[in-house]
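BUG: 3D viewer hangs when loading the predicted structure for this chain

Environment: internal workstation, default settings.
Expected: structure renders.
Actual: progress bar stalls at 90%.

Input used:
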Amino acid sequence: MIRIFRHVFRTVCFCFKLKSISYEGKTLFLPASLSFFGCNVCFLLFICTKEGDIIEDSAFRSVDLRIIEKAEGTVMSLSDLVESYEVIKLENRDEALIKTYPFGIFASDNYILLNPDAISPIKLFTRKGQYVADIGGIGQGPGEYKTIHFCMIDEKQKRIYLGPGRANKILTYDLKGNYLSDEAIHFKEIVHKPCIWMDHDKKHVTVVGLPFSENENSNFEISNNVCWVQNREGDIVHRISANHYGLIGDYSNGLVACRNVDAISFSIFEDPMLRTRPDTLYHYDAVKNIITPRFTIDHVVSENQSACTVLYETSRSYWARVTLYPNDISSNSSPVRLTTFNVCVSKKDGSVKRIDRFTNDFLGLSYPFLTMRNGYVCISYDPLELMDALDKVLTQTDLKPEIRKRATGLRNSLHENDNDILMIGKLKSNY
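Structure tokens produced before the viewer hung:
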């Protein structure tokens, strides 16, 4: 069971009456003011960086986990989050077969890019579920890779970008799966779990990577930077040094960039065993070359309990997935019931909701967490899993007739030898 928690995340406490955060090499102390349902609304006023840039009135939100943990949780309907909803049955021919995961789905207007396990290549499908192509392949040859951390479709440029977990470049392909070696985006150093944002007009690439700092236990290359702007050849325009954001060199640490907003938004999280800082959601201003902290969970460390969090945002809200678990958990321990919930914070007024589950009110299904990425809610099932879930839904005696009709129709259309089934909803702009 310990492996479960190598990929979940936790925060550290802020101490005393002043909240401190690391910001561009400075320690900032923020007043714990304007508390509303566990949300401390702090403001960074006229903070100067070493480059001389100024941030004015940038709201920073911090939720007190001690309060939200005790709050009554709610259930949120999928229809409250999405404006449209599709059930997509992936094509079933041999070359299209794939094991899907919600966090490995990148949906765009016309395509779906799927990142499966480490033994299968990335696959491209249409939004109707038709197989298009394998994108590269598993191996060490040109256009091949072992594992992929980052994937993105740029429909306007008709390009697909893939970033290995340990990368000296971003691999570029066309929408037919052909590797375009002359369009690769090169780095001047090894970048760990890179994410990129393209500015085609200026021919610039913004890069964020895990900032591994020097330590005696690290087996990986040390990072010089955490964020920077460069050209395709790797020449850096400006950068943020990794020094004050440095992590222990371990791939249990990670980087989350869900791309639901226009800002360069990302969070760095650390393995619970290695944590040295709060898990924090940042914005990077690639023009001013400034990192701004936007959201965190204020957690007082307990002797008996740890909190793992992953932070992201949508257009009007900050989000956190929270898992609480006992500190004495081990691989040999008996199964334990973990406390899991979601935190949703309004960017407008700081109001906080605890959401214990999401319900799929189209089909009667439910989920403890949802993956929200690139403006979409992404859910995946293998056919047997979905058949079993729908069978349980259809046993409910109080099921609404329209839900029963949809669930019955989908259940009757499934076969155990089908390819995986995706459910994709377009996020509403007001959430």
